What we know:
The structure is a single chain. By secondary structure, this protein is an alpha+beta fold. The chain has 4 domains: 14-85; 136-221, Beta-Lactamase; 226-301; 309-444, Histidine kinase-like ATPase, C-terminal domain (Heat Shock Protein 90, 2-Layer Sandwich). Helices cover 51% and strands 18% of the residues. The strands form 3 sheets. The protein has a 5-stranded antiparallel beta sheet with strand order 2-1-5-4-3. Strands 7-9-10-12-11 form a 5-stranded mixed beta sheet. Strands 6-8 form a two-stranded antiparallel ribbon. Strand 1 and strand 2 (149-152) form a beta hairpin. Helix 1 packs antiparallel against helix 2 (45-84) and helix 8 packs across helix 9. The longest helix is centred in the middle third of the chain and has 41 residues, at 223-263. 17% of the residues are buried. The chain crosses the membrane at residues 20-40, 46-66. InterPro entries: HATPase_C_sf, HATPase_dom, His_kinase_dom, PAS, PAS-like_dom_sf, Sig_transdc_His_kin-like_C. Pfam families: HATPase_c. Residues 125-171 form the PAS domain.
Amino acid sequence: MVGDWRSRPQGASFERRLRLGIVAVLLPALMVIGLLLYQLRPLSTLNGFLLGFAALATLILAARLFQRVVYPLYTLSNLLEALREGDYSLRGSRAHRGDAIGDVIWEVNTLSHTLREQRLRVEEATALLGKVIEAIDIALFSFDDRDQLRLINPAGERLLGMRDELALGQTAQALQLEFALDARQHGTIARAFPGGSGRFDVRTFGFREGGRPHRLIAVSDLSTALREEERLAWQRLIRVLGHELNNSLAPVKSLAETLHRLVRIEPPPEDWREDVEAGLKVIADRAASLSRFMQAYSTLAKLPPPNRRPLVLLPLLQGVVRLETRVPIAIQCPAELAVLADPDQLEQALINLLRNAAEACQETGGEVELIVESDADWVKLQVVDEGPGIAAADNLFVPFFTTKPGGSGIGLALARQIAESHGGRLSLENRRDAQGCVACLSLPVQG
């Protein structure tokens, strides 16, 4: 049975066993010398000198052999102790190949150099990680297997309103973070902390340290980002609404003032009826345009959740294509390909995409092609046109933004909203093989 390597060794030490071994090796020579001394009596001066010199030389060589064996081992012991203590600067001398002890010292020196390089890389990576943890705005908390806090970053201190020296060692319940250890509470939640309240994204990751399980909790404050996105959304909406309202109300105001002055003229001009009728018609047209705009806004804002069901695509695509007669549209779609979708909403999205493609091709005399492809994860419906392409893509999906006369500006925004409500996506980009653009509506296979 192998005992504990840390326990005190039993029996003779290595040095004692080595001495006994050397004595055992010398014993025959000493016996021969003693026999010669016995047989050569009376002993001459020369013989006595020679035998004494031989005995003394034997003992000296034995002591020298003992030192040559033991001292390199002490050197190796010191080198290994330095490695254990983390001191990688020491090196053993006489490290060279082709020698038993030299090979061992060579390997120890190489090991020391390797460990020094690895520690340097670990220290640099740890320093970088520490800087990242301090700089990020995500609150990080690490709890051990007893739910006691072992690590907290500055963002976590701000969230708890507590310095790390006071927080470390406290339990998750004492810090009001016990909810984060519950897997059912993960995701986006509304919560109030001493450092602020709002909506937070909570994630928990498991790891081991010192052989014991730990949990790392990441708490991201979404309120600031959501408020900023909300502010930008309101700015875009107000800008578009203001633009549309000004386009409608400015001419109405100007015409109303003109008609007011006209009816106050005495005697009235001979053609005043024609001018009034024309002015009132313009006012009616602008009011109708503003009404259509508001109806379009209502359609975009009140889109219901999709009622998804298995749907064979080819018949639906054929029906959509029949509605667009301005340009020829070719269909490439497997006959039996099906997808889980709301047929009404999907049809509306495709109508908008085909309408845009047809209007673009009217400028160039090109054609439109509807290509459907699928893989293990996605079904991709691509509307490929031969129009002039996209000049500026920044405002393509901004609601109510349009460059077409009489356009509502909600076609692409509505199509993207339909795609995203199905768990898919909509992209629009210029073609790489020819003039025109490709609108790709991607839907997940599993819905």
